# Entry
Amino acid sequence: MKILINALSGNGDALMFSPSLRLLKEKIPSAEIDMLVMFKSVKEMYEHSPFVNKIYHINFLKQSKLKSIGEIFALRKNNYDVSINVYPSNRTEYNVVNFFLGAKKRLAHDYTHTDFWRFEILNNVTVNETPNRHNVLQNFDLVKQLAPMQENEVKGLEIFLSQSDKKNSEDWLRENDLQNKTLVGFHAGSAVLKNHIHKRWDKEKFVMLGRLLEEKYNAKILLFGNEFDLNLEIDELLGGMGVLASTSNYMDSMARMRFCNLFVSNDSAFLHSAAAFKIPTVGIFGYTNALELFPWGTKHLIVREDLECSPCFYNSPKPVECTWEGKDEFKCMKMITVEDVFEACEILLKSKPSL
# Structure
């Protein structure tokens, strides 16, 4: 059986397919599994996976539509038996791509918040989206259409590092004198597509949290993410006591992250990457659904304000909007205090053996 995984969204969504990828290979060991991605960092994240045969990168966002169509029809010649739209893929374009790839079985979800023009009809094996069900399990609902499997067989998220990635990160750890120290990773950024910049907890609060962790736990704050200007600003406000842990190479971040004793993050790909390395994680959530997006398979605490209007963002291509205006706009994030997050950090740090 030839299977193509369409992981066309970002790293976080793609990563939450990894437990289903393992299950597919375990249940159908003879399957030849390829992957189609839109972002280079997703390709980097999966290129050392033992469960993927080939990864195809089509740069839909930056190249001409004509070139993209040509590359899709080149892939079509592989004669896939199955193609799968990784959850969530609630966009017209993803369903059109899945159709043109020409697989006999085209798996995807029927979404709760959708319309006819998403062209879900182009997929011929569909499952219903289940509200408040974790993304990992939504993906499981897709792959169980191909082979008998049980929900209790779903394991954790997985990122496979190369030996070079591991060695480079170990060298970096020594060069920055970070061995045998309490390392706390921060990701203060987020994606900006669909207005998701509002997922971000205030940078000033991250700074105050960092100071508290330094004072009480002698922690070193590692700043992750490709929001380099934001991280430089936070480091400056920390008096240069932070450590810039990310480079333009996504796998540098992944390899360095595994040394963290704790990770604090907005709802982002880095939140889920920390879960892949089984790092105790504090997730800061506003308008997105923590029941569907909590750090899967690791010890974690979610910090959020339990407002009647939240969560209000559903898997839709429409940009996020807030029902509140003025100073109350996105108050679901603004109301989360440093004390709230620090308390969660302390609970997780105290549950770990001291260094």
User: Anything to note?
Assistant: The chain is about 35% helix and 15% strand. Residues 118 and 128 are 15 Å apart (CA to CA). The chain has a mean pLDDT of 96.
